[in-house]
């Protein structure tokens, strides 16, 4: 009897993480002599700890197709860092109870670390487990892969939004709003903000200024750049990564001070920048915070990203079937134009808890834009459209109610 | 020789206002014996006052097709309320200088008032002018028309975004974010926020709570509703119109107090609500402010909205050719299912400076949702997809550089 497989989603979800799930499940069905039942843990690793498993045999081909077209984490994800030996031991106990021989963990850097720890623990215990990491993060900060599935779609959403909002501001600038600020995700790295630069096809098109966590913001220089941009083009569109810091290393988003209750204002970066620019330059500002909208926008997913999300899921299964545990599936870029890529793999040890920063050569000399090298890197990642099916004018996303397998073990106490 | 026509865009732009422009220009070309040259004023009525006119003869059929697929105001819009007799007189002087016999003004309630004033002034002066208003406003608050072109596309964007972000929050709620707040436009009326209710197909699906300017928010009741929703469904998605007020009639968005400089916080409603909920309920909150993104999102325009935006433009020309000045083209709903509609017209006097509130029968008894009657009204307005062409992974929007006709008159001093 072949051993069973377990797949789980981890950390912040993406527009295409379910496509990786579909890739894993579909590929696993191709190897019945290697892989028995394919389970998914509800709410990521929490579902392992709580022994809440879903048997994916219930998913029809139609379900799998809809899974590829549905954003969010269809099985639930979690933010839970494995903290104790007891938790690790519990994971192994659940794996043993359910005869799990394959663990597919779909996440970012933290999850790669969990995947590695589980793999090492199983090995030390002499338990036959092949743990494979399926990469995913909109932050695009996983090393040793051309990009992280999820990122290309967010980049496409943000670049589309900037091009659109830029046309709006340009229309109004003669007598009203002159500055628009879009706050995007990116607490430690500026990949998403930088990719918005693709929106500009020609000199003077938005975004005019990109603020990156990698480049400390001097407020005087920023205000001068805003004034200069409005003078030259009549308006100014700014894309700011949430993690932008000032020259003292403080988050600008925390510069707004505290509210009447003494709490740090949750107001965020965009309203802070709008207040700053309005006060010092006198320009009417509008601002938007994309937040989860960018991370869930399956309706404008990148076809390239979708294909890669599916491919890394399928590749993880092939690695497992080939006996290659303790690995992460990767995307290897073969050429920029035309964009060609292949699937590779790296040991988890070189991925776990690492963070790939935006390369300095992608950042323009003035710190407010991107270079041609960055455009060459980003351009193929947003290529192609892969819209979901629509019903009644809205994307027809799946809404599954999972039935959980009856547990075998006592309840785990955290 | 037939007289010339002048078209201008006014107020906040929409994803489909350029489609109305294309409708006007295309239709005007069909009546060469009635209409001579077709000009557009740059930046709306400011372009009339400044005598900055664009001759649309330069626009090819390809340009007109691209105009229909491009958001924002391609010719520039403005926020300028005609304040003086001198300005009105100047408008008439420019019309005389350019032999303008047809004035097509594309805007909301304020613009309808301007259009009416210009019409009346011309009549009083014995100048032969047919002034026709082309309706447009994402706020959907124009009376005597089934809806206002622009609204359906924004409604589709907001409902799509809520469905998507809702799936994201649901994925994370077991161990992280439990509440998501989306702030949408609507300072005086809740049309956009209410339309987001279409995202829910079944009981318990987002949005769980809709906050409307028409329903004063009692914070205690709101917090209880949030707690109750999280208890029932595990998470809570809130859509809030920017113009939501408390029970004292104050904007909630101004409740956040003042910043260190003594300025009213620009932080807005969504971060205020997030702070409130976090403080009182302890739930991790995420929030998004859609702002211009919703108003410019041509990539997810409603096909129905697009068709109606074109139709009101064409209808305005037909009214003009039929000698029907001082009118606004309207959309008349003939039936809900299937949705059928026709074009009508009403005198400007019954439209100018009026505001159509959300009908009480569209608001659920608890004030936090919409009724089946509202769904019947909203559903057809978001129906159908009309994506723009894509190049290199992004919408291929037009980027025109207009040449301005040499002026005939002295410069106007405001």
Automatic annotation (TrEMBL), chains A, B:
<feature type="site" description="Important for catalytic activity; stabilizes the transition state when the phosphoryl donor is PPi">
    <location>
        <position position="136"/>
    </location>
</feature>
<dbReference type="Pfam" id="PF00365">
    <property type="entry name" value="PFK"/>
</dbReference>
<feature type="binding site">
    <location>
        <begin position="292"/>
        <end position="295"/>
    </location>
    <ligand>
        <name>substrate</name>
    </ligand>
</feature>
<keyword id="KW-0808">Transferase</keyword>
<feature type="binding site">
    <location>
        <begin position="137"/>
        <end position="139"/>
    </location>
    <ligand>
        <name>substrate</name>
    </ligand>
</feature>
<keyword id="KW-0418">Kinase</keyword>
<dbReference type="GO" id="GO:0047334">
    <property type="term" value="F:diphosphate-fructose-6-phosphate 1-phosphotransferase activity"/>
</dbReference>
<dbReference type="InterPro" id="IPR000023">
    <property type="entry name" value="Phosphofructokinase_dom"/>
</dbReference>
<comment type="pathway">
    <text>Carbohydrate degradation; glycolysis; D-glyceraldehyde 3-phosphate and glycerone phosphate from D-glucose: step 3/4.</text>
</comment>
<dbReference type="InterPro" id="IPR011404">
    <property type="entry name" value="PPi-PFK"/>
</dbReference>
<dbReference type="InterPro" id="IPR035966">
    <property type="entry name" value="PKF_sf"/>
</dbReference>
<feature type="domain" description="Phosphofructokinase">
    <location>
        <begin position="7"/>
        <end position="319"/>
    </location>
</feature>
<feature type="binding site">
    <location>
        <begin position="185"/>
        <end position="187"/>
    </location>
    <ligand>
        <name>substrate</name>
    </ligand>
</feature>
<comment type="function">
    <text>Catalyzes the phosphorylation of D-fructose 6-phosphate, the first committing step of glycolysis. Uses inorganic phosphate (PPi) as phosphoryl donor instead of ATP like common ATP-dependent phosphofructokinases (ATP-PFKs), which renders the reaction reversible, and can thus function both in glycolysis and gluconeogenesis. Consistently, PPi-PFK can replace the enzymes of both the forward (ATP-PFK) and reverse (fructose-bisphosphatase (FBPase)) reactions.</text>
</comment>
<comment type="subunit">
    <text>Homodimer.</text>
</comment>
<keyword id="KW-0460">Magnesium</keyword>
<feature type="active site" description="Proton acceptor">
    <location>
        <position position="139"/>
    </location>
</feature>
<keyword id="KW-0479">Metal-binding</keyword>
<protein>
    <recommendedName>
        <fullName>Pyrophosphate--fructose 6-phosphate 1-phosphotransferase</fullName>
        <ecNumber>2.7.1.90</ecNumber>
    </recommendedName>
</protein>
<feature type="binding site">
    <location>
        <position position="242"/>
    </location>
    <ligand>
        <name>substrate</name>
    </ligand>
</feature>
<dbReference type="InterPro" id="IPR050929">
    <property type="entry name" value="PFKA"/>
</dbReference>
<keyword id="KW-0324">Glycolysis</keyword>
<feature type="site" description="Important for catalytic activity and substrate specificity; stabilizes the transition state when the phosphoryl donor is PPi; prevents ATP from binding by mimicking the alpha-phosphate group of ATP">
    <location>
        <position position="110"/>
    </location>
</feature>
<keyword id="KW-0963">Cytoplasm</keyword>
<feature type="binding site">
    <location>
        <position position="12"/>
    </location>
    <ligand>
        <name>diphosphate</name>
    </ligand>
</feature>
<comment type="similarity">
    <text>Belongs to the phosphofructokinase type A (PFKA) family. PPi-dependent PFK group II subfamily. Clade 'B2' sub-subfamily.</text>
</comment>
<dbReference type="InterPro" id="IPR022953">
    <property type="entry name" value="ATP_PFK"/>
</dbReference>
């Amino acid at each position: 009897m072949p051993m069973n497989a377990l797949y789980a989603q981890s950390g912040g979800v993406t527009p295409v993480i379910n496509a990786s799930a579909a890739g894993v499940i579909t590929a696993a069905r191709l190897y019945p002599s290697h892989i028995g039942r394919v389970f998914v843990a509800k709410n990521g690793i929490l579902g392992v700890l709580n022994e809440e498993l879903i048997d994916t045999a219930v998913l029809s081909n139609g379900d799998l197709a809809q899974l590829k077209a549905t954003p969010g984490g269809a099985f639930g994800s979690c933010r839970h860092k494995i903290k104790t030996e007891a938790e690790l031991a519990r994971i192994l106990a659940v794996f043993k109870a359910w005869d799990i021989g394959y663990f597919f963990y779909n996440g970012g850097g933290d999850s790669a670390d969990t995947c590695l720890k589980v793999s090492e623990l199983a090995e030390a215990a002499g338990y036959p487990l092949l743990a494979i990491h399926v990469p995913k993060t909109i932050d695009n900060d996983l090393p040793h892969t051309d990009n992280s599935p999820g990122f290309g779609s967010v980049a496409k959403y943000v670049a589309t939004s900037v091009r659109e909002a830029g046309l709006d501001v340009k229309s109004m600038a003669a007598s009203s709003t002159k500055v628009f600020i879009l706050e995007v995700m990116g607490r430690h790295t500026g990949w998403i903000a930088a990719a918005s630069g693709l929106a500009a096809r020609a000199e003077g098109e938005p975004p005019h200024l990109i603020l990156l966590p990698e480049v400390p913001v001097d407020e005087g220089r920023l205000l001068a750049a805003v004034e200069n941009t409005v003078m030259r083009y009549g308006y100014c569109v700014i894309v700011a990564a949430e993690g932008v810091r000032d020259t003292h290393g403080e988050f600008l988003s925390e510069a707004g001070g505290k509210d009447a209750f003494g709490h740090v204002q949750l107001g965020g970066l965009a309203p802070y920048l709008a207040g700053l620019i309005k006060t010092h330059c006198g320009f009417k500002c509008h601002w938007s915070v994309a937040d989860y909208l960018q991370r869930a926008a399956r309706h404008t997913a990148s076809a390239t990203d979708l294909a890669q999300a599916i491919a890394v899921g399928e590749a993880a299964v092939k690695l497992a079937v080939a006996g290659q545990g303790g690995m992460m599936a990767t995307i290897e870029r073969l050429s920029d134009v035309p964009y060609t890529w292949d699937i590779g793999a790296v040991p988890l040890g070189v991925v776990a808890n690492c963070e790939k920063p935006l390369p300095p050569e992608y950042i323009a000399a003035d710190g407010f834009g991107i270079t041609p090298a960055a455009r060459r890197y980003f351009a193929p990642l947003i290529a192609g459209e892969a819209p979901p099916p629509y019903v009644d004018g809205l994307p027809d996303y799946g809404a599954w109610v999972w039935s959980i397998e009856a547990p075998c073990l006592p309840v785990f106490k955290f």
